[in-house]
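Summary of Year 1 activities. Much of the first year was spent building the evaluation harness for sequence design. The harness presents a backbone, in tokenized form, and records the residue chosen at every position. We chose the following record to illustrate the format because it has been used consistently in internal testing since the harness was completed.
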């Protein structure tokens, strides 16, 4: 075997498992031994120079090997256990966050379920069994993500988006905040649909009966939204490809008569059909400040959430504050406080403001349906900001009002640590 080949083999054998010092020493010894076997004597100066260069090359190569191995993907629940392929995460009344080693993050909304299908450096795949998730995927060269929801697949390299899959009604919706996604599957067949920032796509089977009549008053709408969870319960639009549930064939005689022109959709109709950006644009065209004084309780709350879903935080905040100013003490006013907390935390990145609005919500609804989730969020925010005393006080309230809640064990441990001091 030639000296060059022997040197290459020795270098390959010497790379080892990583850069610890003891491994590097062994690697150097192997390379030097191989060079001796090659029969090429070196003078002292040349030998020391060659040895130094080889040691440097080995160290650099080992670092690359070590770095490549460090990119192995892992996932874990926030403050909880490690997840592996086939792990299933199911949420109750409280959201769960899955953190990935590459910096990506998936927030599972309450009453959602997802399974980790694949977890490796090149590709991560999650199956959303039911519910809604919000994903923030970090871009990495050569790495990709897929979210499977029913018959649909959302392919992404690096972006922020939400996916909603309601298994019972076969309703699917994906909305992109940043970056770009590609949707395949379902009625798309072999084709694909590309979505850019601010765009969304939704599908649901056309309902057999005529469309449901809207609630008689805004209070009933707000209570229905509260029952559905922290996110506004908006009804997705039916598929454009499907015929309307109330469409009837025209007779040949009737076809000669010009069809009547349908009135343009209202802000409320646009929000309820999931056309959030169009709803905000229509409000702008009509005069946003004037619209805030005219919309009903439920419609105003819907406009605020339309702005929030499209990351228009200023308009979202204006609408939610208008709800609280115009309808104090009403159910929607309480929901507006909760949404203002979400705007502060998710869009403004202002945990202090988020904590303040969560306290407002809890003061107005200390035992409501969403109180447990609000206390859990407040406790997490305070702990993250270093306010252990404040978080402990919230933990005591949590145990008093929700002794069997989703984070009761965490609250109990926090109180026990405080009492043991």
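For this record, the design step produced the sequence shown next.
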């Amino acid at each position: 075997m030639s000296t060059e080949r022997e040197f290459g083999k020795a270098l390959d054998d010497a790379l080892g498992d990583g850069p610890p010092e003891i491994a590097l020493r062994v690697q150097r010894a192997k390379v030097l031994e191989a060079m001796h076997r090659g029969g090429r004597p070196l003078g002292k100066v040349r030998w020391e120079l060659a040895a130094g260069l080889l040691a440097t090359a080995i160290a650099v190569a080992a670092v690359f090997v070590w770095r490549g191995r460090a990119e192995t993907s892992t996932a874990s629940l926030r403050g909880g256990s490690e997840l592996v392929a086939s792990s299933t995460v199911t949420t109750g009344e409280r959201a769960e966050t899955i953190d990935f080693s590459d910096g990506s993050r998936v927030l599972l909304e309450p009453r959602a379920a997802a399974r980790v299908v694949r977890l490796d450096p090149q590709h991560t795949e999650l199956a959303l069994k039911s519910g809604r998730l919000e994903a923030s995927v970090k871009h990495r060269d050569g790495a990709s993500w897929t979210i499977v929801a029913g018959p649909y697949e959302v392919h992404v390299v690096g972006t922020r988006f939400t996916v909603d899959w309601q298994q019972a009604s076969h309703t699917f919706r994906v909305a992109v905040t940043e970056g770009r996604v590609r949707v395949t599957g379902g009625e798309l067949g072999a084709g694909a649909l590309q979505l850019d920032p601010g765009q969304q796509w939704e599908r649901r089977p056309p309902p057999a009966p005529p469309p449901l009549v809207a609630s008689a008053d805004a209070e009933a709408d707000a209570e229905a939204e509260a029952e559905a969870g922290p996110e506004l319960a908006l009804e997705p639009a039916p598929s454009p490809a499907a015929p309307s549930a109330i469409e009837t064939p025209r007779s040949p005689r009737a076809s000669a008569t010009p069809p009547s022109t349908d009135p343009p959709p209202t802000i409320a109709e646009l929000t309820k059909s999931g056309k959030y950006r169009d709803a905000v644009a229509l409000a702008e065209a009509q005069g946003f400040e004037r619209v805030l004084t005219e919309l009903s309780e439920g419609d105003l709350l819907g406009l605020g959430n339309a702005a929030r879903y499209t990351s228009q935080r200023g308009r979202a905040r204006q609408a939610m504050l208008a709800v609280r100013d115009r309808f104090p003490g009403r159910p929607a006013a309480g929901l507006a406080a909760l949404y203002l907390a979400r705007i502060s935390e998710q869009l403004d990145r202002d945990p202090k403001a988020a904590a303040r609005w969560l306290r407002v919500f809890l003061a107005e609804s200390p035992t409501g349906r969403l109180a447990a989730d609000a206390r859990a969020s407040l406790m997490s925010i305070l702990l993250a900001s270093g306010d252990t005393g404040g978080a402990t006080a919230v933990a005591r309230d949590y145990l008093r009002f929700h002794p069997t809640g989703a984070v009761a064990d965490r609250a109990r441990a926090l109180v026990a640590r405080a009492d043991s001091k």
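The chain has three domains: 3-70, 75-203, 223-228+265-420. Quantitative recovery figures across the full test set are reported in Table 2.
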